[in-house]
Amino acid sequence: MTVIWKPELDAAATRWQALADQLGRDRFGPLAEELDREQRYPWETIEALVANNFTGLFLPRDFGGQGESLVTTVAAVETLGTHCASTAAIMCAYQLGAFPILLAGTDKQKDFYLREMTQGRATSFALSERIAGSDAAASRPPPRAKAMAGACAARNTGSATEAPRATTWCLPRPTRPRAAVASAPSWSTRSSPAR
Question: pTM of the predicted model, to two decimals?
């Protein structure tokens, strides 16, 4: 295999990568074949990720996370993926769900949703809806979300088809729905009762 880019890892990234490798060998790798065969969601993996602070790895300390860099997070996720692709995908889904909140959430939203993530309650980036496929610009909010005009925590109405295990979704909403080209999305969040 040809290595195209290999960043220098600082001491923290090296420690997290080593922990990811150890957990991968001990916990996630031995479970990988079973997960692939049974096509089930690995709750035991989430428990291990929470217990070892991986679900908050990239989240700011102010919101219960570890405050590590994206380079550290990528190094850990890449290492987890060498043992179990499902575990690496779960970590990526956590990141996708967190970034809209990190970038555009209020302090109150960040305090609630990011702390939830550190406890293993995922916030997923829900790109796909029944009427839109994977075209974010074609997404249309349900009537309740329209009425809330970007407010937070609309209850799940069943229109999001992504992330059935998440309790909260970040939904892209076109800012110019009738435009001929895709517009920049705005964000709303939806929550469903915890599992």
Answer: 0.68
